[in-house]
Amino acid sequence: MKCLIKYKWIKLPRDFEIEAKGLMTYYTRLVTRAAFRKGMSHYCGFENPVEPGMWAGGIVGLKSILGVKKRLVALWIMNQLEDLGYLTWTLEPKTKLLTYKITDWVTKCSGAPCKEGAVYASTGYGFIGMPRNITQRLVDKGYKFEPGDALLDLWCHTVYRDYGNAFSFLAPDVQYEKYGSVLTLEMLGKRWGWEKTKVCRFFKKYEEYFKLYRLPASYGCVIFNQCYPTEDRVTMPSQEQVVSIFKEILIRARNTHTEGTRNEKLNRFVAWLSRRMMKAWEESVQNQSDSESKSENQSGKGMLKASVAFLAPIIRAYISHGRNCKHSRNCINDCQGKLIGKPEKSENPQIGAVRPIEPVNLFSLPNPFLTNDWRMYYGTVLFPDPTG
């Protein structure tokens, strides 16, 4: 399944647990526990109506979802997420019923609520839709990212098999906007509010989630998402494969002039030339598969063998008297090529009886279409007798 940069939503498995601190870690936990359809939830013997992206329960249940032990910490997290516009929540003072609703829920449910069945998804089942720009609010607010925020930021900017990014055909790749397939540690540090050394330590620590490949010189690096769900079985590419695509892009763009740093130029080249590269690659793969299937067919694999052998090319012809010749009219050949019948004799000793003629090499004869002496071939395979 493709994951293009133009898609506004991205898949996040429910069983993907971010083992790192950060507001986005708490946000993903709240999203995965929200209702996926209309229905009735049960809390302390009471039924409460819920909608998709909504949760209703008590403060103890909220602390269990967030993974915190103190009530004040849980309420502080809810206030922070509400200030950033990620959700809205209420707490009734009498019944102590706490409800929250995700503001950026992917689907909208229209119809009658479900009276039977669960409204909350099972833990670890399926996936949820996450907006690509969900972490942009933190950047606009000048928020200093935590490791959990950085992990979700990379996840939400993953692309797969996008024709604007040749690296995404190797594995799910992290790309920021159209001209952001090749990243730099300085750019990520500026986005997250970190130093370059902290970014390096981050990728070493969370290498099981995101793998970083450095490009030659000062062009930057490519980051692949190792946990993104795809229909195809994807293995992480080698350093040589990544560098080969990098070199191919530079070769194709050797006569293209643009301004900016090396990283900015390379990002433009990737966006401009990736579609042409991938189309050529797909055509070569298709041609190779066609040639392989054709060779298998010629060798008798994959199809029934022909019951009649192919004839060898004809390079010789036998010239004999025509059918209307009175000396050979009474003679015929049987199926084995033996002469049957008695030919008429002629008084002219030069004519005599019918006798076989020595084979003639056609390639040694003059071209009848280039000479006027075409009558010498009359009655042969080249110019058969129309009266016969």
Please tell me about this protein's structure.
It is a single chain. The protein has helices at 23-32, 59-66, 71-83, 136-140, 147-155, 185-192, 196-205, 239-252, 262-298, and strands at residues 9-13, 39-43, 46-50, 54-57, 87-91, 98-102, 127-131, 158-159, 173-174, 210-214, 221-225, 316-317, 332-333, 339-340, 360-361. By secondary structure, it is an alpha+beta fold. Among the domains are: 1-6 and 130-294, no CATH class; 317-388, no CATH class. α6 crosses α7 (196-205). The longest helix is centred in the last third of the chain and has 37 residues, at 262-298.
Question: What would you say about this model in short?
Answer:
By secondary structure, this protein is an alpha+beta fold. The chain contains nine helices and 15 strands. The model is unreliable at 108-117, 301-311, 350-354 and 368-384 (pLDDT under 50).
